[in-house]
Amino acid sequence: MGTDLHAPLGRNRKTGSRRPGVLRVGRIAASLCLFAIGGFSLYTAFRGDGLERARPPAAEQTANEQSGTPPTTAANQAANGIPRADPRSGANVEQTVTGDGSVVTKYSPRPRDGSGPVLVDAMQIGQDPRLAAQPNETLLEETAFGRLPIVGPDGRRPMDQYARPSSQARGIRIAIVVSGLGLSQTGTQRAIAELPEEITLAFAASGNSLQRWMQEARRGGHEILLQVPLEPFDYPANDPGPETLLTSKPVARNIENLHKAMGEITNYTGIMNYLGGRFLSDPAAMEPVMRDIRKRGLLFLDDGTSAQSKTAAVAKGTELPYAIADLQLDGQLDVNAILKKLDELERVARKNGQAIGIASAFDESIDAIAKWSEEASMRGIEIVGVAALSNDPKNP
């Protein structure tokens, strides 16, 4: 019996037929997939996605290009073909102050001017908090003095756009304005960081880093004003600055200095005087300045320090929205004294339905106002922006 026990390995074996390996089959399949993917990519690249915007007919497109106007849309027809109307244009509005100081507003219907349909533009008061640090570009114009506020093409005013919204509820309303921001960097930073967002902040036009501070204040929810230097009675011994508005200056020069101040920042609801006893007592000097402020859709706040001020008379004659402060809160720089003044301001508000207090950005003032404000809401007091308490001919 033969054996191959001692035969060399691999010799005298039958030769079998070999089949293609699994690896070779995989390579062929992968190549086919690559060819398929490449072909599909070329196909979709040259075919287009079918999502191009529909183009207008050639005749319409040519007409639009020649006229320089965009294609007519339904929205444009509604905006341009129908006259706009104020929400209150179809109502008589009467306000009465009751014995307890509450303000009662009565609305009754009345016919609108003209005939046919109107587009009622219920413009929102205030600005989206996410955009509060940025200006509404339609409410600005480029000038040699910077970007100045103007009334928008739809009639919207900066005082409406940048006002802090209020509840509009019946009750006791108080506005507190802290002024002089921008003059002291530490005082400005502390006021923005520690005062409640309901407090209105006034920036001095001669301050430093105003645009940065303005943006921080707006992000914090504050309504803001711009303080413009006006001539005091003891000028030039008490000189507010080189671009002070003076009764002795020509109207054009005062308007120029006003515009220089306005160009320092954006996003403010109005102008507040910095000093200015003599200027505010001179109607001839005031009138052209107040007309320019009104034309730009702003309000004017008189700090109430001058008994000879003609602000109310001139503002009414020029249809300028205005307000006059009731009390100076920090004539005595002591926290307890300021708290007593705030209590006095509350009594004025309970009697009249509303009141405005003015303070400067001193440490004592900031401490007292922050403390008092925390407790005010518990006594039924709403702290509002100064625009909410202005005498506005447009919204009586």
Automatic annotation (TrEMBL):
Positions of region (Disordered): 53-117
Keywords in alphabetical order: Membrane, Transmembrane, Transmembrane helix
Stretch forming the signal peptide: none
Keyword Transmembrane helix: yes
Low complexity biased stretches: 69-80
Residues annotated as transmembrane: 21-46
This protein's record includes keyword Transmembrane: yes
Protein name: Divergent polysaccharide deacetylase family protein
